[in-house]
Amino acid sequence: MANVVEEERFPGHPLLPYLLILPSVAVIVLFLVVPFLQSVQESFYASTAFGTNTVFVGLRNYARLFESADFRNSALATLMFAGFVMVIGLSFSLAVAHLLNQKIRGQGLYQIALIWTYALSPAVAGVIWALMFAPATGIVPFVVAKLFGGGLINWMMNGSLALFVVSAAATWNMLGYNIVFFLAGLQNIPEEFIDAARVDGAGPWRIFWDITFPMLSPTTTFLLFVNMIYAFFQVFGLIDIMTHGGPGDATNVLIYKLYRDAFLYLDTGAASAESCIVFVVISVAAVIQLNFATRKAIYAR
Amino acid sequence: MKFKNWLLAGLALALGVCMVPQAAVAAGKVEITWWHAMSGSNGKVVDAIVKDFNAAHPDIELKALYTGSYEETLTKYIAAYRSHTAPTIVQSYEVGTQTMLSSGAVTPVYQIPGMVGETWDWAQYVIPITHYYESGGNLWSLPFNSSSEILYYNKDLFAKAGLDPNRPPQTWEELEADGKKLLASGAVKHVLSFGWPDWTFEQMFAVHNQLFANHDNGRSGLATKVLFNSDFGVKVIDTWARLAKQNIFIYGGPEYSANAAFQSGQIAILIQSTSSLAGIEKGSPFKVGTGFLPRFEGYPRGNSVIGGASLWVTKGQSKAQLRAVWEFFKYLAQPKVAVEWHKGTGYFPSVNSAVQDLLGEGWFSKDQNYLTAFLQILSGRRDTAAATGVRMGPFVQVREFERTAIEKAVAGQLSPKAAVDEAARKADQLLADFAKLNR
Amino acid sequence: MTPRLWKAGATHAALITLVLLITFPVVYAVIVSTLSFQQAYVYPPRLVPGTELWHNIVEAWDRVHMGRLFFVTSVISVGTAVVKIILSLMAAFAYTHFRFRGRALLFPMTMVTQMLPLPVRILPTYEMMASFHWINSYSALMFPFFASTTGILLFRQFFLTVPRDMSDAARMDGAGPLRYFLDILVPLSRTNIAALFVIEFIYMWSQYLWPLIVTNTEDMRVVQIGIKMLIATDQISPAWNVIMAGTIIAMLPPLVVLMVFRKSFAEGIAMQTAK
Fold it and tell me: What's the ipTM?
C-alpha cells in the first residue's frame, strides 16, 4: 500500500479527511474492536448463565478446550471441511473458469449460467442439498444406489458421509463466486506470454504451471482467503439446516460448536475462548497466505 | 456541505427507523408480557387461551410472544434480563429448571399469592408434576406443559407376527422376544427406535427408582457427580447395544426423527414423548397401541419422568403486574382451560379437577391411548427423588454426553461401560464447575 | 473436422455438462416445489414436475408470513448496502486524496476487520445490542455490519486509477474537495458502486446466524430464518414441496439483483483483479 499522493491535492482542508473517515472508524471501533476485546477478556473468566457470578480462571477455558475430545473433534471436522471447500472448490472452479476462458460462441451465456449460484445463501444451499439427500427419498442416494448397487442408506446418519455431503454443498455454494474471480484473473493474463510459450513448444500443462498459475496467484490467494472465511464462518446456516452439527458431532464445525456453547449451553467462557482460538487460526492462515502470495508474485515477475 | 447535511439526515432517519416503536398501552390496562416457545398448532392454542383471558379481564393486557425454541427463548431471556427488558413471564424448559433456580432473576411462584393478598391451594395440581418443579417443597415455577414418555406400537404388525395386538411388551425381556418374532415374520427390518434417547435413558433410571445424580438427584443440593455410570446404567446401555446388534433396535436420532420410521411402518415399536400421540395417530395408517415404558425384571418400581416446561415470573414486578400475573395463573388452573390445553396439545392438564372432568366426560374411553400416559404417571411412586427425575445445572450439555455415549455404544465404537464412564467424567467436571460457580 | 472444431466441440460439451451438473440441484428443487406432499415422498423419487406450484407458494408464503420477511430483509439489505457504500466512498476518498496522520492505519484496519468476522465477537456484540435495547430492531440487524473495509479497498483501488489531472482541473475551476467528490468522483465510480451493492445486498440477504439470535418476534425475522421455520416441524416429516416453494421465492431477490447488475459486477471484479 505505497504512498501515492505526493502533494496535497486540495490544500486548506486539514479537518476534512478526519471527518470523512470518522463514521467508518467509529463503527469499526465500536462494533468490531470493542466486542473483540471483550471476547478476549471474557475468555479468561467463567460465569454463570445469568452473569450473577464471574470468576477469573486464567487459561483454564483454553486448557479445557484443548483437552476436550469434543473440541479436537470439532477442530478436525472444521479443517477437513475447510480444506475440502478450499482445495476441491478452487481446483474445480479454476478448471471451469479455464474452460470458460476459451474463445467460443456463447461465452456470455455460459458465464451467466455458472455465476448465478453466487446469489444463493448458505441456508438455501443447505436446504436444497438436504432435500437431495433426504432419508429414504433423497434423489442422490437413490441414483448412487442404482448405479453402484447396494442398499439405500441414509447418508446423513453416517458421520463421515454427512461431513462429505455438507462439504460438497458448501463447495457448490461458492462455485459461482470462485469462477467469476478466476475468470477475471485468467482474462488478465496477457496473451503474449501464452503465445510465446506455445511458440517455444510448451505443452498446455507446462503453460499452466509456469505461466498461468503463478500469474493467478493474487487471485488464488484472495480466493483461498475468502473461501476460508466462508468455510469457517458463513456456513453456519448450511450446517444448522442440514445437520445441526450431527450426526454425533460429525459436522460440529467450530462455528457451530461456538454457537452451541454460547447460546445453548450458556457457557460464555468457553465460547469466548473458542472465538479467540478461531481468530488466531484465521490470522495465522492469513499471514501465511500473504507471505506465500508475495513470494509467488515476485517469482512470477 | 449539502452532502454532509444529506448524510446526517440520512443517518438520523435510519436511526429513527431503527428504534422499535413502543406500542402505546391503552390507558388503564396493566400490561404483562409472556415469552414462550410454543410453535405451530400448540402456539395457536396458546393464542386462543390468551385471547380468552384478555377478554375475560378487560383491565389486563397479556401479550404472548413466540420467541423461538426453548433454548432460544432462554438465551434471549437472559440477555433481556441483564438489560432490564425481561418479560413478565417466561416459559423455560424442564432442563433449564436449575439454571432458573440459580438465576436470582425470578420471584418464586409460591410466594405470589401472599404478595397479592390471596391464598391458594397448591394441592389442586397433579402431584408428580409439582414434585418435578418443586424446590424445598415449594413451587418456584408454574407447571404449564407437561409430557412424559410411553411406548407406541403398531397393532397391525404385531398381529402379522403372531403376537397379541392388545398386549405390548412390558419388560425389556419381553420386548426382545417380541422383537425376534417380528423380525422373523419379515414384516420389518428393525423393531424398535426411540425419540429423545437421552431422556429415555433418564426415564429408565426413574422408572426403576435409581438415582441419576448425587445429592438426591440434585434436589437436596446442587448435584456434583452423576451416578448414571452405575451397574444399572451399564445394564441399560448394554441392553440397547445388544438389541442393536440383533437388529431389533435401531438408533433413531435425537428428538422426533424416529417418528417417520414408525408412521411409515418401518419399525413396529417406538418409545416417544406423549406429546407425539395426536400426530402419530393422525399420521399412521394402522392401529396404534400404547403401553408403559418397558421395565427390567427384578428392579424396584419408580415412576416415569415429567418433561416439558413451566412458567417463571421475573422479579421486580409492580404490585399491579403481579396481580395480573396471578389472575392469569388462576385462569390457567380453571378446569375448562386446562382441559382445552390438553385437548389442543396433548400435554397433561396440571390440575386434578381437569383430570376428573376428562374422566367424567369419557374422554379416555374414546381413545384408550390418552389414558396410558396418565396411568403411568399416576400409578408410579411420587415420594422419592429417584422417581421424580434428576435436576442438574448444565443439564443440556450432560444430555449431549448421554446421547454420544448411547450412539457410540450402539454403534459398537465403545463398550457400554466405557461409553457411560466417558460421559460421566465429562458430566462430573461440568457439575463441579456449576456447583462452585453457583454456591 | 479440424482440430480446432474438435476442441470447440469438446469445450462446449464439457461446459454444457458442467452447467447441467451445477444447476441440477436447483432444477430439482423447482421440480419438487411443483409436487404435492405425498408426491414428494414417493420412492423412487419423482422427476416429473407436478401441478401444485401455486398452491405450495401460497402455503409457504402464508405459513411464515413471507411478505413481512421480505420487507424486513429488503430494508436491511438495501439499507446496509447503501450505508456501507456511503461510508466506504468517503473513507476511500480521504485515504487517496489527502495526507493526514493515521493514513497508514488503513492496511492494519483492513486486516483486522477481515480477521474478525461477526462470529468471533458474537457474544459481546449481542450483549451490546441488549444493553442498547436494540434487540429485535433494525439497528441490531444492521449496525454490526457497517464495520467492514471491503468497500474502502474497492473504491481506493479505483480512485487510484483516476488521473491526477481531474482533481487538478476541478481545483483550478475553484471547486472544493467535496464538490469534486460529489460531482465527479462518485459518478465516475458508478460501476464499482453497483458491484459493491450486489456484493453487500447478497451478503446481507444471506445472513442467518445473526438475525437468528438477535430477533425475537415474527415481525422482525428475515427470509433465511423463514426457511428454517418452514423446515422446523415438530413431529411430522418435512413438507419438502412447500419448503422448496419457499426456498425458490427466497432465492429470487438476490438473483434478480445479481442479474440486473451483472455487467457492473463482472467489471468491478475485473478491475479488482487487474493489479
Answer: 0.88
